[in-house]
Write a structure and sequence with these properties.
By secondary structure, this protein is an alpha+beta fold. It is built from two helices and four strands, in the order βαββαβ. The chain has one domain: Alpha-Beta Plaits, CATH 3.30.70. The structure holds iron/sulfur cluster.
Amino acid sequence: MQVSVDTQKCIGSGMCVLHMPEVFDQRDDDGVVVLRTESPGPELHDAVRESAIACPASAIHLVES
Ligand code: SF4
């Protein structure tokens, strides 16, 4: 799985960080998402998918391998 985020779309809601702090973080100044890893391990995939669904801005993109 390859993960990418669109920082232009992100509205800083923090849903992804709540779901998956191993993969997502937020900038201190404006809350915009920071991707901690582009290729999370298989054990994290379900939670990453849930994060993408939960994102209110559809700013998380997944490419399944
Ligand atoms: S859930 Fe979406 S809008 Fe909210 S911080 Fe994460 S990427 Fe940004």
